[in-house]
Structures are given as C-alpha cells and as structure tokens.
Amino acid sequence: MPIEYLGLASIDGPLVVVDGVRGAAYGDIVNFRVNRSELKKGQVIAIEGERAMVQVFDATTSMSLDNTHSSFSGHGMEIELAPEILGRVFNGVGEAIDGLGAIHSNISREVNGAPLNPVSRIYPRNYIETGFSAIDTLMTLIRGQKLPIFSGDGMPHNELAAQIVKQAKLGDNSDEEFAIVFAAMGVKHDIADFFQRSFEESGALDHVTMFVNTADDPAMERLITPRVALTTAEYLAYDLGKQVLVILTDMTSFCEALREVSSAKQEIPSRKGYPGYLYSELATIYERAGIVQGRKGSVTQIPILTMPNDDITHPIPDLTGYITEGQIVLDRDLYGKNIFPPIGVLPSLSRLMKDGIGEGYTREDHEDVANQLFAAYSGAAEARSLASVIGEEELSDIDKKYLEFGEKFEEEFVGQAADETRTIQESLDLAWELLRAFPREELNRMDTKILDRYYDSSDHEPESEENGEA
C-alpha cells in the first residue's frame, strides 16, 4: 500500500510541492484526495532531495496546504488497452468521453513507451494512399514515415486532417488491416465536435481511435495526449498487427504547453522562450514512428503544426524538420485562390518516397511523373515572375505553355473538391493529361521508355486521329 502524505508545502498555480517524499521518481503519477472526497491526479516534474514538485492535471482552486492527501503511485502514466479501443473517443489522458464506459483490460502500458533498439527498425517501403493527388504523387507517404504538415493560422489544416482520416487507406494490393489514431491538442470545442461528427458521418470512426484535449483542459494534459495516442498506436501495430496512421494536431499547442510548464518551473528559456529541451521532447514523440523487425504492424505519423506568422524558421517547424523525413507545406497564396488543399508543392517533399513508389508499389512511371511535375511547376513559377516584369503578351510560346500549365496544375491537380478522393492511378493519369500540353522534347525529366508508353500511347491519341480525320 503506498504511503499517503498529509498536506502540501506550497501551491503555485497548477504546481504543488510535497515535502518528505521518499522513493518517488520523475514522471510518477500522484493521486490527490482533497477534503477527503475530491480526487485529482498529477505528475512529478521535478525532484530535489525529499521535495517533489507535481503538476496537477486539474484546477488547484479547491486545494490548500492542509486539506490535501498525496500518494505516489511509483509508476508513470498508464492506460489500459484492448481491441475495443477502435471506434472510441477519449480525453487527453485516455479516459472515455463517448458515454460507452471505460476500457477494462489486463493489458496496461506506460505512455512514455519502451525504448526501441534502432537496429531493430526496418526501412519503410510500402505507401499509404491519402486520396489527395498532390500528396500521393509528389510527396508520397510511406509506412513507418513521419511526414509533418506545416500550416498557418486560419489555414484549413483541420479540414485536411479530417479528410485524410476519412480517405486514407493502404495500397490496392494490400489485404492488411488498417487503423487510425487521431489526437487533437488544445482545440476549441466546436473543432473537436467537427472532427467527431465528420468521422461518425463518414463511417470512418469504426477504425479510428480518437483522443481530444480541448483548449480549456490543463496544459499538463496536453503534454500527455500525444504519448497516450502513440502508446495506443504501438499496441494496435505491434500487438494486433495493424498498419496504423497517427495524426497529431496541433503540435504547436503541445509546444506552447511545454513552454508554459517550463516557465512555471522557472527554468531558463531558450529560443522564443521555449525550453532548451524542446528538440528532445519533440524527438521522443516523432521517433516512435517506424516498423519493427519481427512485428507485422507499422506506425506512421502525420504531425500537424501551425507556424506562428507563417515563419518556417520558427523553432517548432525548424526542429520538427530536423527530426522528420520531409514536410507538406500549406501555401497561403493558394488558399487565397480558394484552392483546397492549398499545398505548396515546391517547398514540400517526402524523403522516403523514392523507395516506396514505382513498379511493384504504385506504378512504373510514378517517379518520372513526379520529377517532371516538379520541373514543370518550377518553370511555371519562373514564367510568372518573367510575366510580372515584361508582361504576359511578351512571353515566348513555351513560356505561355508553362504559365497555362501552372494554372491548370493548381486548380485541377492540387485542388480537389470537398470529400473528393482520387486513387494513385487516377492521380498519375491526371498528371499525364496536364503534361501532354508540352511538346515531347520539353519533358526532359523522363525516361524515353516511359515517354514511349504513356505520352505517345494510342490510348491517349485524339479521337479524330483514331478515325483517320487528322
């Protein structure tokens, strides 16, 4: 039976100090009993000798120095896990909030996860189809990858996240089980309701486990939410053998909570007031993606973060870029043109896509098409810059073709209607329709064999030529 300590040494906002504590460790869960009836939880965030500083998960207004009993659990935050977690909605610390009761199981895991030997990792290969042409064709998401989305204030990253959850699936040739873990941190109640309603109405909630931490929940809970979500994902992947996609939104809220707690602990701040250990905190979350040797499942991550003032050099996107394998950047100019999703193609990339596309994975022409689309869209950007200087009517014929391609590419390829999903095959076919506007000799990023098969294919010749009317 754990020792119960009577009284607190001090209370400072969400932080309380307990004196005379023995055997406690950093990260241990603390159970508080206030006025002999009210129960609260907290977590040890600092230890100095026999003095423990605890962050309370709830408001401390009812707590005083002499009405609180504290007992230290001797372990970190744990959650109970069972196959029934799919289709359920929980709060940020894993407590059911969907009215269906708690999960009862003899399997419980600590949310910080077990250390993973890097040697046991398997290089990611197969892809996950999101249903968006720009992502699937140009920055393909590979199983076991961590591919963040960099957004900005007011951008439609919530709508994009919801649609990815509804549309995402494994490749056409896969018969493996697919699951999604969705974690929302620091969101408003109407946004939380939007996510849950979207998943329920689309039927996607059946294979989704959802964790919701709202803006009025404690900051400390926000720090635990992504760890609870990833512990759930690891159980689904490594115990149940599922291919799991984890979507974390918004990691900026997580970092803001980390800064708030660090400030309360009176730690010396680093860049922009964030603690010096921001990098390692982000790494402990992002590095839990991957494929483990000897296990059937995989954990793939799409963290979403909002860049303050659209600044990609801000510490949060900057450090995230160091840890992850690429990024998807949302473009405010495209958003202003009413294009959804407003994905900025040129600053976006997936560093692992080259080994998970092509023959045997997507289609043999995928890599060549992606390279040519990047080159053509870059040419369109140059043509726009030139037109702004000398005027569009002074452009050469080929520059005008690039200009026209750029408009069609943004509207027809990057842009998709709400709830419109495209297979990878449909996206590649659409890309070819756009690229055929150029003379063959202009498509210089492609192998000749690929051009022979797809550019000059009789399947794509004009109808008048097929009927001998050319």
UniProtKB/TrEMBL annotation:
Residues 131-350 form the ATPase F1/V1/A1 complex alpha/beta subunit nucleotide-binding domain. Residues 10-63 form the ATPase F1/V1/A1 complex alpha/beta subunit N-terminal domain. One of its GO terms (molecular function) is proton-transporting ATPase activity, rotational mechanism. It holds the Pfam family ATP-synt_ab_N. SUPFAM superfamilies: P-loop containing nucleoside triphosphate hydrolases (SSF52540). It comes from the Bacteria. CDD domains: ATP-synt_V_A-type_beta_N, V_A-ATPase_B. One of its GO terms (biological process) is proton motive force-driven plasma membrane ATP synthesis. NCBIfam families: PRK04196.1. Produces ATP from ADP in the presence of a proton gradient across the membrane. The V-type beta chain is a regulatory subunit. PANTHER family: V-TYPE PROTON ATPASE SUBUNIT B (PTHR43389:SF4). Belongs to the ATPase alpha/beta chains family. HAMAP family: ATP_synth_B_arch (MF_00310). This is V-type ATP synthase beta chain. It comes from Aerococcus sanguinicola. The gene is atpB.
